[in-house]
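FORM 7B: Structural annotation worksheet

SECTION A. Query
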Amino acid sequence: MTVDQATRLSLEYQQIVESEEKRGGRRSPHQLPAPKELIITALKLEIAQLFFIHAESNDTLWKPLINAAMFIDSFDDMPMEAGAYIEAMQQRRREMDNFVLELLKIERSHPFYWQRIYSLLGIISETKTTSFFEGLKQKLRLGQRSGSPDTDQSTHRRPVGRLNLG
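SECTION B. Predicted structure
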C-alpha cells in the first residue's frame, strides 16, 4: 500500500463514518471500502505522512484519524453489547496512541524513515528487483538445505571419486 492509496482509503472511510447520523450504532460491514485491518493500516500510514510533513507533533492533526479508527468496530454483522463496544473503542484508541508513540521515536530526517514505518506496520514492499532475486533464488534453489524434503532428488548428482594418476 502506498501513501496515496492509504490517503484515498482513509478519506473514503471517513466519509462513510461522517455520513451516518447514529454514531456508535451497528453498521453493515459491506459499507466499508476495504477490510477493517487494511483501513486501520491506511489510517496509521496517513498519520505517519502527517507526522513526516509537519515539523511539530501536533495532536490536532491526527486526532480526526484516531477518532475515525475508534468507530471501525461498529461495522459488524452482529450487534455488540454496549460494554464490549466501549472496550473495543478504547482498545482501538490505545492501538493508535501506541503507534503515535512509536512514530515519535523515529527520527523524521532518517534516510530510512519510510522503510521503518512500513516495517512497523508490517507492510512488505516488493520491488521489481527483490521479486526478480526471489524468483532467481527459487529457480536455482539457493538457500535450501540439501537434506530438506522439498528438494527434487533427481537434481542431485552422485559424488564421483578422484582419479589418481601415479
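SECTION C. Observations
DSSP finds six helices and no strands in the chain. The two ends are 67 Å apart (CA to CA).

SECTION D. Sign-off
Analyst initials: ____
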